[in-house]
Design brief:
This protein has 397 residues and is of the alpha+beta class. The protein contains 7 helices and 24 strands. The radius of gyration is 38 Å and the shape is elongated.
Length: 397
Amino acid sequence: MKTSAYVLLLFGTLALSMCGKKNEHAQHDATKYTCPMHPQVIQDKPGSCPICGMDLVKMDATAGADGSIMLNESQIKLANITTTLTRFENMGENTILTGKLMVNEEQTEVVSSRVQGRIEKLYLKEIGQRVTQGQALYEIYSEQLLILQQEYLLALRQFDELKEPRYESFLKASEKKLVLFGMTKEQVSQLALRKKTDSRITFVAHVSGVVARIDATEGQYVSEGSALYRIERLDQVWAEAELYTGESSLVKTGDIVRVKISGFENETVVGKVTFLSPEYRQGSQIITLRAQINNSKKEFLPGMQATVILSHSEKKAIALPVDAVIRDGKGSHVWILEKDGAFKPRMVQTGLENFEKVEITEGIEEKENVVITGAYLLYGELVLKKGGDLSAGHHHH
């Protein structure tokens, strides 16, 4: 009888042990691992993602029942997730004006011939070529310049031989004539050194910019004052846009406006309104706005599309970047970084919205840690893990 009881006890212990191991094995088998950056990768055991090489994480550890998501530091860095503490700031409505960049006509240089003669060579033959100050533009044969060079050499020889003050004044006057007719001081110094006239003189650019027009050809005879090149300087450009008379109260000459330029969307530049001109067009009065933009790097070119932003009706409000707010059929929500390190979605109400920011009227208080970049990646992760029902179990804060 004792033996039978012992056997029963032994079998019961073994059965419980095997059952525990079976449950443990089943639980291990049920655990799935996935890549935080490529959720389509799912494996039964830990390892590396075959696409990006990241360590796989447990699927049941990435998204909680309340929609919260846990990420480690490397995952946060790879997903470019950043947060900011909310605060009250100036928030205003924006009026968006579409326009384009124009040449600053006040910085346009027309290169004209200083003397009568024949164009022997053009160094710049294509519109759009960049020019730097001191660069050779054209070479000209001019009898007028030959005579002036001979006068200078004669005055130089007389001064060297006689050393009288009056011959020194003659020399300075001859040198001044050569400079006024377009020769550089360096060219005059070379003339004095060689003591020999040059029938072909090279003229150089006095400003840097871009060739906008070429009005001469090689072999062409030109008179004094004939236009040869038009050079547009790009140190400053104009952003021009149009607004209706009802919007004229939003801006005045001297105001600072923000400008976004096609190709530089991530960079907002500032411009100063220098000109407002009303004109009538098809029965409506249109106002042309011109804002001057500094372009020291020469990266903004005439013809680029530009957007001029007029801000008005400012007030204090909690505002977030537009990309921080996720909108779907259930409403709007943001992601909050909780104290335990979890990212949790929260439904919010939005109000005023402009080109860059959106007002949060309900759902967030001041000094809460809100995700401002990477919110869409978190939303995609939640959709893949939990179906993306952000309103389930959530309420306004």
